[in-house]
Amino acid sequence: MTYAKLSQLAREELLELRPDVVILDEMHRAAAPTWEKPVQTLLSRNPAPLVIGLTVTNIRYLDGQKDTAELFFDSNIAAQMTLGEAITRGILNAPRYVLTSFSLEAGLKKYQAKIRRTKSAAVRDEGEKLLEALRRALDKADGLDVVFQKHITERNGKFLVFCANVEHMCEMMTHMPVWFGGVDDDPHVYYAYSDDPSTSRAFQEFKADKSDHLKLLFTIDMLNEGIHVEDVSGVILFRPTVSPIVYK
Length: 248
Known about the structure:
Layout: H1 3-8, H2 11-16, E1 21-24, H3 36-45, E2 50-53, E3 59-60, E4 66-67, H4 68-73, H5 83-88, H6 104-117, H7 121-140, H8 144-151, E5 158-162, H9 166-174, H10 176-180, E6 188-192, H11 201-208, E7 215-219, E8 232-237, H12 244-247
Parallel strand pairs: 1-2, 5-7, 5-8, 6-7
Antiparallel strand pairs: 3-4
Protein backbone atom coordinates (compact mmCIF):
# COMPACT_ATOMS: atom_id res chain seq x y z
CA MET A 1 0.00 0.00 0.00
CA THR A 2 1.33 3.45 -0.85
CA TYR A 3 1.61 6.14 1.80
CA ALA A 4 -0.94 8.16 -0.18
CA LYS A 5 -3.42 5.28 -0.08
CA LEU A 6 -2.83 4.80 3.65
CA SER A 7 -3.57 8.47 4.29
CA GLN A 8 -6.86 8.20 2.41
CA LEU A 9 -8.22 5.39 4.62
CA ALA A 10 -10.97 6.23 7.06
CA ARG A 11 -9.92 5.89 10.70
CA GLU A 12 -12.04 2.76 11.06
CA GLU A 13 -10.33 1.18 8.03
CA LEU A 14 -6.94 2.13 9.39
CA LEU A 15 -7.66 0.52 12.75
CA GLU A 16 -8.86 -2.67 11.05
CA LEU A 17 -5.43 -3.30 9.51
CA ARG A 18 -3.67 -6.12 11.34
CA PRO A 19 -0.36 -6.70 9.53
CA ASP A 20 2.15 -9.29 10.72
CA VAL A 21 5.04 -7.21 9.38
CA VAL A 22 5.22 -3.52 8.48
CA ILE A 23 7.88 -2.49 5.95
CA LEU A 24 8.27 1.24 5.47
CA ASP A 25 9.96 1.44 2.08
CA GLU A 26 11.45 4.85 1.22
CA MET A 27 11.00 5.52 4.92
CA HIS A 28 11.78 9.24 4.70
CA ARG A 29 8.53 9.66 2.74
CA ALA A 30 6.53 8.32 5.69
CA ALA A 31 7.38 11.50 7.61
CA ALA A 32 5.83 13.82 5.02
CA PRO A 33 3.30 16.20 6.65
CA THR A 34 0.24 14.52 5.11
CA TRP A 35 1.46 10.96 5.66
CA GLU A 36 3.15 10.95 9.07
CA LYS A 37 -0.05 10.85 11.18
CA PRO A 38 -1.64 7.78 9.49
CA VAL A 39 1.69 5.94 9.64
CA GLN A 40 2.01 6.73 13.34
CA THR A 41 -1.58 5.60 13.89
CA LEU A 42 -0.88 2.32 12.12
CA LEU A 43 2.22 1.66 14.23
CA SER A 44 0.67 2.73 17.55
CA ARG A 45 -2.42 0.55 17.03
CA ASN A 46 -0.34 -2.48 16.04
CA PRO A 47 2.56 -2.60 18.52
CA ALA A 48 3.33 -6.30 18.06
CA PRO A 49 4.45 -6.62 14.41
CA LEU A 50 8.01 -6.45 13.25
CA VAL A 51 8.58 -3.00 11.75
CA ILE A 52 11.38 -2.40 9.24
CA GLY A 53 12.28 0.87 7.55
CA LEU A 54 14.38 1.19 4.40
CA THR A 55 15.75 4.45 3.07
CA VAL A 56 18.74 5.95 1.33
CA THR A 57 18.73 8.65 4.01
CA ASN A 58 16.84 8.96 7.27
CA ILE A 59 17.14 12.78 7.38
CA ARG A 60 14.54 15.04 5.73
CA TYR A 61 16.85 17.97 5.07
CA LEU A 62 14.18 20.37 3.79
CA ASP A 63 11.70 19.45 6.53
CA GLY A 64 13.40 20.84 9.61
CA GLN A 65 16.15 18.17 9.51
CA LYS A 66 13.57 15.64 10.67
CA ASP A 67 15.19 12.28 11.56
CA THR A 68 12.85 9.46 10.54
CA ALA A 69 14.97 6.85 12.32
CA GLU A 70 14.35 8.70 15.56
CA LEU A 71 10.72 9.36 14.69
CA PHE A 72 9.72 5.77 13.94
CA PHE A 73 12.46 3.59 15.50
CA ASP A 74 13.88 5.41 18.53
CA SER A 75 17.10 5.85 16.49
CA ASN A 76 17.63 2.08 16.21
CA ILE A 77 19.50 1.62 12.92
CA ALA A 78 20.16 -2.03 12.18
CA ALA A 79 22.51 -1.49 9.25
CA GLN A 80 23.86 1.55 7.49
CA MET A 81 26.07 2.16 4.49
CA THR A 82 27.29 5.57 3.38
CA LEU A 83 27.53 6.60 -0.25
CA GLY A 84 31.32 6.63 0.04
CA GLU A 85 31.41 3.07 1.38
CA ALA A 86 29.12 1.83 -1.38
CA ILE A 87 31.47 3.34 -3.98
CA THR A 88 34.57 1.94 -2.24
CA ARG A 89 33.06 -1.56 -2.16
CA GLY A 90 32.16 -1.42 -5.84
CA ILE A 91 28.40 -1.52 -5.29
CA LEU A 92 28.04 1.89 -6.97
CA ASN A 93 30.22 3.37 -9.67
CA ALA A 94 32.37 6.33 -8.69
CA PRO A 95 30.98 9.37 -10.53
CA ARG A 96 33.15 11.69 -12.58
CA TYR A 97 32.01 15.15 -11.53
CA VAL A 98 32.55 18.23 -13.67
CA LEU A 99 31.96 21.63 -12.05
CA THR A 100 31.31 24.69 -14.23
CA SER A 101 30.90 28.41 -13.65
CA PHE A 102 27.48 28.45 -15.32
CA SER A 103 25.51 29.95 -12.43
CA LEU A 104 28.14 32.34 -11.07
CA GLU A 105 26.98 35.39 -13.06
CA ALA A 106 23.83 35.66 -10.96
CA GLY A 107 25.96 35.48 -7.84
CA LEU A 108 28.18 38.31 -9.07
CA LYS A 109 25.15 40.54 -9.61
CA LYS A 110 23.93 39.79 -6.08
CA TYR A 111 27.30 40.70 -4.55
CA GLN A 112 27.50 43.83 -6.71
CA ALA A 113 24.22 45.01 -5.22
CA LYS A 114 25.47 44.30 -1.69
CA ILE A 115 28.68 46.24 -2.29
CA ARG A 116 26.79 49.26 -3.59
CA ARG A 117 24.64 49.31 -0.44
CA THR A 118 27.70 49.30 1.82
CA LYS A 119 28.11 52.64 3.65
CA SER A 120 31.83 52.34 4.32
CA ALA A 121 33.87 53.69 1.38
CA ALA A 122 36.89 51.57 2.32
CA VAL A 123 34.87 48.36 2.51
CA ARG A 124 33.11 49.28 -0.75
CA ASP A 125 36.41 49.88 -2.56
CA GLU A 126 37.88 46.60 -1.31
CA GLY A 127 34.71 44.76 -2.33
CA GLU A 128 34.89 46.23 -5.84
CA LYS A 129 38.51 45.04 -6.20
CA LEU A 130 37.60 41.50 -5.16
CA LEU A 131 34.55 41.49 -7.42
CA GLU A 132 36.62 42.62 -10.40
CA ALA A 133 39.12 39.82 -9.74
CA LEU A 134 36.25 37.34 -9.70
CA ARG A 135 34.94 38.74 -13.00
CA ARG A 136 38.35 38.32 -14.65
CA ALA A 137 38.56 34.72 -13.43
CA LEU A 138 35.05 34.05 -14.72
CA ASP A 139 35.88 35.52 -18.14
CA LYS A 140 38.76 33.04 -18.47
CA ALA A 141 36.55 30.06 -17.60
CA ASP A 142 35.28 27.81 -20.39
CA GLY A 143 31.73 28.35 -21.57
CA LEU A 144 29.25 25.48 -21.38
CA ASP A 145 29.67 24.77 -25.09
CA VAL A 146 33.37 24.09 -24.51
CA VAL A 147 32.69 22.15 -21.31
CA PHE A 148 30.15 19.84 -22.98
CA GLN A 149 32.29 19.31 -26.07
CA LYS A 150 35.27 18.43 -23.90
CA HIS A 151 33.61 16.19 -21.35
CA ILE A 152 30.77 14.47 -23.25
CA THR A 153 32.95 11.74 -24.69
CA GLU A 154 30.04 9.51 -25.68
CA ARG A 155 28.72 11.45 -28.67
CA ASN A 156 25.71 9.12 -28.89
CA GLY A 157 25.23 8.92 -25.13
CA LYS A 158 22.11 9.37 -23.03
CA PHE A 159 21.97 12.22 -20.54
CA LEU A 160 19.35 13.20 -17.98
CA VAL A 161 19.01 16.98 -17.80
CA PHE A 162 17.51 18.13 -14.48
CA CYS A 163 15.66 21.46 -14.43
CA ALA A 164 13.90 23.35 -11.62
CA ASN A 165 10.51 23.95 -13.26
CA VAL A 166 8.88 24.35 -16.66
CA GLU A 167 9.97 27.98 -17.02
CA HIS A 168 13.54 27.08 -16.13
CA MET A 169 13.48 24.17 -18.57
CA CYS A 170 12.23 26.39 -21.39
CA GLU A 171 15.02 28.85 -20.67
CA MET A 172 17.64 26.10 -20.77
CA MET A 173 16.22 24.87 -24.07
CA THR A 174 16.92 28.22 -25.76
CA HIS A 175 20.65 27.66 -25.21
CA MET A 176 20.70 24.07 -26.44
CA PRO A 177 21.91 24.67 -30.05
CA VAL A 178 24.94 26.60 -28.79
CA TRP A 179 25.74 24.44 -25.76
CA PHE A 180 25.42 21.03 -27.43
CA GLY A 181 26.15 21.93 -31.06
CA GLY A 182 29.80 20.92 -30.70
CA VAL A 183 28.74 17.42 -29.60
CA ASP A 184 25.87 16.80 -32.02
CA ASP A 185 24.19 19.32 -34.31
CA ASP A 186 21.00 17.24 -34.30
CA PRO A 187 20.51 15.78 -30.80
CA HIS A 188 17.38 13.81 -29.92
CA VAL A 189 15.57 15.80 -27.25
CA TYR A 190 12.85 14.49 -24.93
CA TYR A 191 10.77 16.12 -22.18
CA ALA A 192 9.37 14.26 -19.19
CA TYR A 193 7.89 15.92 -16.14
CA SER A 194 4.72 14.03 -15.30
CA ASP A 195 4.15 12.61 -11.82
CA ASP A 196 4.26 9.05 -13.12
CA PRO A 197 7.31 8.38 -15.31
CA SER A 198 6.07 4.90 -16.24
CA THR A 199 3.19 6.44 -18.18
CA SER A 200 5.29 9.01 -20.01
CA ARG A 201 5.60 8.28 -23.72
CA ALA A 202 8.64 10.54 -23.99
CA PHE A 203 10.36 8.66 -21.17
CA GLN A 204 9.73 5.33 -22.87
CA GLU A 205 11.00 6.65 -26.21
CA PHE A 206 14.15 7.99 -24.55
CA LYS A 207 14.88 4.59 -23.01
CA ALA A 208 14.32 2.82 -26.34
CA ASP A 209 16.42 5.22 -28.43
CA LYS A 210 19.49 3.36 -29.75
CA SER A 211 20.45 5.91 -32.42
CA ASP A 212 23.90 7.37 -33.04
CA HIS A 213 22.74 10.82 -31.91
CA LEU A 214 23.17 12.49 -28.56
CA LYS A 215 20.05 11.86 -26.48
CA LEU A 216 18.88 14.41 -23.89
CA LEU A 217 15.96 13.89 -21.51
CA PHE A 218 14.90 17.18 -19.92
CA THR A 219 13.09 16.37 -16.69
CA ILE A 220 11.64 18.08 -13.63
CA ASP A 221 11.70 16.17 -10.30
CA MET A 222 10.45 12.99 -11.97
CA LEU A 223 13.70 11.00 -11.89
CA ASN A 224 15.04 12.10 -8.49
CA GLU A 225 14.90 8.60 -7.03
CA GLY A 226 13.54 5.11 -7.48
CA ILE A 227 13.75 5.03 -11.29
CA HIS A 228 16.36 2.95 -13.09
CA VAL A 229 17.36 3.79 -16.65
CA GLU A 230 19.85 1.61 -18.50
CA ASP A 231 22.73 3.01 -20.57
CA VAL A 232 22.70 6.48 -19.03
CA SER A 233 26.01 8.20 -19.75
CA GLY A 234 25.57 10.95 -17.19
CA VAL A 235 23.39 13.69 -15.75
CA ILE A 236 23.42 17.45 -16.23
CA LEU A 237 22.41 19.34 -13.10
CA PHE A 238 20.90 22.61 -14.25
CA ARG A 239 18.56 22.50 -11.27
CA PRO A 240 19.82 24.40 -8.20
CA THR A 241 19.11 22.71 -4.88
CA VAL A 242 20.14 22.84 -1.23
CA SER A 243 18.95 19.28 -0.57
CA PRO A 244 21.75 16.69 -0.24
CA ILE A 245 19.18 14.00 -1.11
CA VAL A 246 18.30 15.56 -4.45
CA TYR A 247 21.94 16.34 -5.18
CA LYS A 248 23.17 12.81 -4.48
